[in-house]
């Protein structure tokens, strides 16, 4: 699993380190009814006000290993099983309330006995990202009738109900799917449509109308790093300059979730994060600084010298979290939006930040254990975290 995560991270980094100028956007290419999608799915909350349960939770290193908050706890997947970490009791459970269930993470002959927490990844594409929206979990999965089609599924928070919500498109390969997120009534999904084209889909969760709001052209073009914020969905648009795949070009873009109108925010990217109207990012070509781009003026300025040569950046909407992705690095820098280092926490055997919300930072350690760091401890300089689960001698041990 660690190698898998390292590979995912490497891919994410390669992708994030590019800049793009393909400029092949095609706004509002409605592929369904041709009608506007602005009638009703979007919940108008106020542009910069985060609303838990309706907004995307873009605090992640990769969507394949993200965690989403319900406000009372966090959902996450490990080895095709859905888990829940309860904030108040600081305990972790499988999302299955079936009496006498043995909680197997493989298909049983008698489907009626199948564990509710078993979410097979060949059926449900949770590794593309998932969302907690309107008191349910949403994710992509295989269409029940057409093996080439992809559907959006809803899973109830106790795991007892699974519903196929919308059929959205057909694919030839599961790997063509980029990322998935739900934000303010719309699902967003990126898709590689050919060797040199990619599309970003928007799906109205009420009507299931799907349309393409952005397309990209160029070798190996793709959209990734989807992040909902305010009434926008932000993303990276990438492609290779040529077929050597050595030089990548890319842009950070955003689309208005209602109109679908896409605008480019800035060239180049490493990791990026959005807080209100500002995009914070690392620049592979100039890695010494953390940069901030004002989305209104498109002006880019240096925020702070990148602490500890950080090459990973996340946000929880309040602070930036920066670290250097290396086996020898154990320091997470917590930085305010005005560029002040609020805290430096040293995490023994640090591997990566898995995500979290405003209350907890979930940290994966080298032994492949997950820890929950209470953010009320930020500013003390002390890393004192609770274990969510650990793995000892290939045994998965939940802190129940
Ligand atoms: Zn079970």
Write the layout of secondary structure elements.
Blueprint: H1 2-16, E1 29-30, E2 68-69, E3 73-78, E4 81-86, E5 91-94, E6 131-133, E7 136-142, E8 149-155, E9 162-170, E10 177-183, E11 186-194, E12 197-204, E13 210-217, E14 219-229, E15 232-240, E16 248-256, E17 262-267, E18 272-275, E19 278-282, E20 289-294, E21 300-305, E22 312-315, E23 320-323, E24 331-335, E25 341-346, E26 350-356, E27 360-365, E28 370-374, E29 385-392, E30 395-398
The structure holds zinc ion.
Residues 96, 98, 101, 103, 115-117 line the site of zinc ion.
Task: Please describe what this structure looks like.
- Helix content is 4%, strand content 46%.
- The protein is mostly beta strands.
- The chain has one domain (2-398): Methylamine Dehydrogenase, Chain H, CATH 2.130.10.
- The protein has a five-stranded antiparallel beta sheet with strand order 1-13-12-11-10, with no helix packed on it. A five-stranded antiparallel beta sheet has the order 26-27-28-29-30, with no helix packed on it.
- Strand 22 and strand 23 form a beta hairpin.
- The protein is globular.
- The two termini are 22 Å apart.
- Mean pLDDT is 87; it is low at 1-43.
């Amino acid at each position: 699993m660690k190698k898998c995560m390292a590979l995912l991270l490497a891919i994410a980094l390669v992708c994030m380190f590019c800049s793009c100028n393909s400029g092949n956007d095609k706004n509002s290419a409605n592929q369904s009814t041709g009608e506007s999608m602005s009638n009703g799915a979007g919940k108008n909350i106020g542009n910069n006000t985060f609303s838990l349960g309706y907004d995307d939770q873009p605090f992640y290193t990769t969507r394949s290993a993200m965690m989403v908050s319900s406000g009372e706890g966090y959902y996450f997947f490990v080895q095709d099983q859905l888990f829940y970490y309860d904030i108040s009791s600081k305990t972790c459970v499988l999302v299955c309330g079936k009496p006498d269930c043995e909680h197997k993470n493989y298909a049983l002959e008698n489907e009626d006995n199948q564990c509710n927490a078993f979410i097979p990844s060949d059926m449900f594409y949770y590794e593309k990202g998932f969302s907690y929206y309107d008191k349910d979990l949403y994710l992509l999965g295989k269409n029940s009738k057409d093996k080439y089609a992809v559907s959006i599924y809803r899973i109830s928070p106790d795991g007892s109900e699974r519903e196929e919500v919308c059929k959205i498109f057909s694919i030839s390969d599961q790997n063509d799917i980029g990322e998935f997120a739900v934000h303010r009534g719309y699902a967003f999904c990126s898709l590689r449509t050919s060797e040199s084209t990619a599309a970003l889909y928007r799906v109205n969760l009420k009507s299931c109308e799907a349309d393409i709001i952005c397309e990209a052209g160029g070798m190996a073009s793709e959209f990734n790093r989807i992040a909902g914020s305010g009434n926008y969905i932000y993303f990276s648009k990438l492609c290779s300059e040529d077929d050597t795949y050595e030089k990548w070009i890319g842009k950070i873009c955003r689309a208005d979730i209602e109109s679908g109108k896409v605008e480019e925010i800035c060239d180049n990217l490493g990791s990026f994060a959005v807080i209100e109207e500002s995009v914070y990012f690392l620049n592979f070509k100039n890695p010494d600084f953390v940069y901030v781009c004002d989305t209104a003026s498109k002006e880019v300025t240096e925020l702070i010298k990148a602490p500890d040569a950080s090459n990973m950046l996340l946000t929880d909407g309040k602070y930036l979290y920066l670290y250097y992705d290396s086996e020898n690095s154990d320091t997470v820098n917590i930085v305010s939006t005005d560029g002040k280092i609020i805290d430096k926490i040293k995490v023994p055997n640090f591997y990566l930040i898995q995500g979290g919300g405003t209350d907890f930072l979930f940290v994966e350690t080298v032994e492949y254990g997950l820890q929950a760091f209470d953010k009320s401890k930020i500013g003390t300089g002390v890393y004192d975290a609770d274990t969510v689960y650990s793995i000892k001698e290939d045994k998965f041990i939940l802190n129940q």
